Amino acid sequence: MKRINNRFALVLLAIFLSVVFNSLQPVSVFASQSADKKEYVCPPCGCDKDDDVFDKPGVCPTCGMKLVEKGSDAARPMPAANQPAAQRRKVAILVFDGVQIIDYTGPWEVFGQAGFDVYTVALKADPITTAMGMKVVPNYTVENNPKPDILVVPGGGVLNTQSDQKALKWVRETAEKSEIVLSVCNGAYILAKAGLLNGLTATTTAPLIDGLAAAAPNIKVVYDKRFVDNGKIITTGGLSSGIDGSLHVISRLLGRGRAQGIALGIEYDWHPEGGFVRPALADKYLAFAFNGLGRIILNREGNTEYWENRYLVFKMPSAKEALELINKSFETEGKWVKQDSGNQNETMSLWKFTDENGRQWNGSASLQPLIGEKNKFLFTAKVVRSDAKQTVAANPTDPNKLIIRDAWIQEGPPSQKLTAAFMVIENQGAVATELVSAKTDIANVVELHKMETVDEVMRMSKVDLISVPGEGKAELRPSGFHLMLIGLNKEIKQGDEITVTLQFANSVQKTIRVPVRKREAMGN
Questions:
Q1: b/e burial code for range 1-21 (CB count within 10 A of at least 16 → b)
Q2: C-alpha dihedral over 383, 339, 507, 492, to 10 degrees?
Q3: Three-class secondary structure assignment of 96-121
Q4: Is 60 a catalytic residue?
Q5: pLDDT for 4-45, tens place per residue?
Q6: Active-site residue identified among 42, 45, 47, 185
Q7: Prediction pTM value
Q8: What percent of the chain is modeled with pLDDT above 70?
Q9: Are 510 and 449 in contact (CB under 8 A)?
Q10: Do the Cβ atoms of 183 and 200 come closer than 8 Å?
């Protein structure tokens, strides 16, 4: 009986093994077939295709990122910022005495918003002082910093750092082990001195672009982009351009949608395909100094084809002498050729030149005497490309947008040879301007003055201009800005009306009738 039971058990075991073997064989074949057929997904970036599965490689139709194999490390969601730093991408930012604040804090903000582990690295553990006096204690030194995935090299006062062999060695070695290296502003000079830009295309802050080509062999300098991507090495323009470069890195690593979300979150107007590019603006052809001129810049406006600078010029004996100094500045620049204006106009000169790309440009310099002033002028320097589509300022001045109200002149004793005028200047336009001079027939001179308290003492001083903000107003009142009428040539009393003409920086003139009143009648 026991032998029969043993045989029965062996038969059952054989049947069971046969069933198991036969049931496993098709699954094994199917699994082998499935292993040969790969599936692809969009790297998790927050776009609407994150959950879709594709049967062949390519790019995501929404965000444009390269598809990755399903189940791979690249297909896993990035850790959130509150997860351990060891699980997040690491970003090392080099800091040094004189570093520009926005050059390193802009990228820090962007990479921090992406959930990356961001830290500063310096040559020493001592606090460093930024370009504007901010004290910063570095997180690490070059001897003990964690290995980063991304290296950021900002700009600022880079002269010492770009010649420090210890710093350059660390940058070279760290760059070699990093996935991406990003320079901001003239931090590109540090990369150049470290030998990382040889043969590459690069950019930097606008005033230093020409010098970058000489900083290392075979650098191709780019003027018209906020950032230049060579693959591993990315260089950006000045200051806020570091934000654009950092967003571009996020777009590469996590997708365009994620970068756009970060830009919106920090309220940054991000235009990766174009937008504002400082070195491409036409004012680079007016960047030279007008030597010998005392001047205040009033307006700088234009685009890549047209530019206008407007100045308040003072302490010049005549318009002729001022124009002579201006013409010498054009001539010293070298590329400008003076043109015959067709007359002997002592307040304007015309110029032409051909740029490095063979494009023709027209330039002009003009002086406008200010009313009531003998040695003060409005000076306008313009440059426009001969084939420009736009040759006027984007916000032309409308004289009707400047409204003068509540004006009055203070009555004084008959023997007094000076008095003051007060008013409200309302600017209903969007573009700011300045009151730069005034005149009236009852006074030899009208000056712009300001009354203020200095060391608990009321003091009055002369000013060159009074600002009138766009969609705002300037209030001229006894305790602040006012017009000083000096050298009265007749007695004025309450009830009189005085004609006053005001000159604004945008060439608008306003002539008004101003009543004379006692100060006590107006209150304070």
A1: eeeeeeeeeeeeeeeeeeeee
A2: 150
A3: CCCECHHHHHHHHHHHHHCCCEEEEE
A4: no
A5: 455 555 555 555 555 444 444 444 434 444 456 889 888 776
A6: 185
A7: 0.77
A8: 86
A9: no
A10: no
